[in-house]
Amino acid sequence: MTEKHFKQPSGEFTIHDIGYPRVEPDTSTPVRKAMVAFEDKIRRDTEFETAAFFDEHGNMLLKRTGLPNQVRYTHSELMRMRGKCFSHNHPNGGSFSIDDI
User: Fold this and answer.
1) Handedness of CA 85, 90, 94, 98 (dihedral sign)
2) What are phi and psi of 31, to 5 degrees?
3) Residue 40 in 3-state DSSP?
4) 85: number of CA atoms within 13 Å, CB side?
5) Burial of 88: CB neighbours in 10 Å, binned 0-12, 13-18, 19+
6) What's the CA gap between 87 and 76, in Å, rounded?
7) pLDDT per residue as tens digits for the range 13-59
8) Which of 9, 27, 70, 99 is buried most deeply by CB count within 10 Å?
9) pTM of the model
10) What one-character DSSP code corresponds to residue 79?
11) C-alpha angle 36/68/32, rounded to 5°?
12) DSSP-assigned letters across all residues of 46-72
C-alpha cells in the first residue's frame, strides 16, 4: 500500500482552510459599510449572480439578479454608473474572473 501525502506548503492557506487568517472587512466609510452588508446578503446565494452599484454615500443605485454566471446591464445603465462602486457574488463560490476585471 502506497502512502499519499498532501504537499501544500506550511503556512499557505486558502480561504477554505480552518486556519485561514480572518480579517474583519473595512466598514470605515458609508459606501464600504453598505457594500459589506450587501455582500453578506448575497454571499450564500448558490443559484444566481446578483450585482449592485453604490454611490459614495452608500446608497444602492442599481441592483440586478441575473443568471448563474452573469448579470447584464445596458450600455446606458453602465454609462450612468460610471465611477460608482460595484459588487457582485459568484454563486459557484469562485474568485473573481478575467471577465470581472
Assistant:
1) negative
2) -70, -40
3) helix
4) 18
5) buried
6) 18
7) 566 666 777 788 999 999 999 999 999 999 888 899 999 999 999 99
8) 27
9) 0.74
10) H
11) 10
12) -S--EEEEE-TTS-EEEEEE-BTTB--
